[in-house]
Amino acid sequence: MHDINHHTHNLPHSTYITMSFDISSHIRTELRDAADPATKKTFQRFFKEEVKFYGVKTGTVGKIAQKYWKNVKSKDKQEIFQVCEDLYRSGYCEEAFVVSFWVPHLKDRFEPIDLSVFKRWIETYISNWAMCDGFCNHTIGDFIEKYPESIDELKRWTQSKNRWVRRASAVSLIVPAKHGKYLDNVFEITDRLLTDTDYMVQKGYGWLLKEASRHHQNEVFAYVMRNKKVMPRTALRYAIELMTKNMKADAMKKDW
Questions:
Q1: For the chain, how many structural domains are there in total?
Q2: Is residue 114 part of a domain?
Q3: Cβ proximity of 242 and 211 under 8 Å
Q4: Pairwise CA distance, residues 170 & 177, whole Å
Q5: Partners of 52 in the beta sheet?
Q6: For 107-142, how does the pLDDT look when each residue is reduced to its tens digit (9 = 90+)?
Q7: How far apart are the C-alpha atoms of 89 and 83, rounded to whole Å?
Q8: How far apart (Å, rounded) are the C-alpha atoms in residues 81 and 76?
Q9: CATH classification at residue 194
Q10: Does 149 reside within a domain?
Q11: How far is CA 124 from the centre of its chain?
Q12: What is the pTM of this model?
């Protein structure tokens, strides 16, 4: 096994696909077997759109992801990406969650070109908020920490026709914003999404403002007050969630 791992970078593309299918099918079988009736019963209620799911508890998905990560982590990054794409192709939430668990472990191997791969995955395979946030919060958040100049690309994502790419432009900065980073960029992305009519995008940038307010409450409050006339109430309510009672009252007041 050691020799196979060691020489994967010399393997033809067709061999990658065979290995990818093999690992994916094992993961699929384990997820199917781990389906929990209670989880299956309640899963759909978290989503407005129809979603595909096995009904596996999040903790169990994490354990399965961890188990198979040990098998794939020493492989060539492109081969791991191939397995990820194969998992995404099924459309099942839990398989997407395995990808969200794996890819941040590759952050030391990230290269600038990877962002275009991640964007294509979002455009092609992401179909609900849980898939979007699970992937973007950590994978793209970690990517941005390594290549902060790529925030310019996130700004371009705000103009995408794809709702999940637009939401991704905001939620990819959640973790850094929570630690007080990139405030000017947070406001610039929010400016571009401000009047977006999609409630999933509104919730995404509202959440981003909320996290930014942990370290920059006054600045975020001033931003909300400046823009509350045009900011959808959905986004506004998220943005002010951590603020004082008085701040919330001022922000919610329709005084124009």
A1: 2
A2: no
A3: no
A4: 10
A5: 92
A6: 999 999 999 999 999 999 999 999 999 999 999 999
A7: 10
A8: 9
A9: 1.25.10.90
A10: yes
A11: 14
A12: 0.90
Retrieve residue 57's tokens: 């508890």
What number of other Cβ atoms are within 10 A of residue 103's Cβ?
A: 24
Give tens-digit pLDDT for 12-23.
554 455 556 689
How far is the C-alpha of 135 from the C-alpha of 128, rounded, in Å? 11
Distance, CA of 65 to CA of 34 (rounded, Å): 13
- Give me 106's structure tokens: 């590759």
Determine the structural domain holding residue 157 and report its residue range.
127-256
Kindly compute the dihedral angle of the four CA atoms of residues 154, 104, 101, 125, in this order, to the nearest 10 degrees.
30
Secondary structure, 3-state, the chain: CHHHHHCHHHCCHHHHHHHHHHHHHHHHHHHHHCCCHHHHHHHHHHCCCCCECCCCCHHHHHHHHHHHHHHHCCCCHHHHHHHHHHHHHCCEHHHHHHHHHHHHHHHHHCCCCHHHHHHHHHHHHCCCHHHHHHHHHHHHHHHHHHCHHHHHHHHHHCCCCCHHHHHHHHHCCHHHHHCCCCHHHHHHHHHHHCCCCCHHHHHHHHHHHHHHCCCCHHHHHHHHHHHCCCCCHHHHHHHCCCCCHHHHHHHHCCCC
Provide the pLDDT confidence category of residue 40 given band limits of 50, 70 and 90: confident
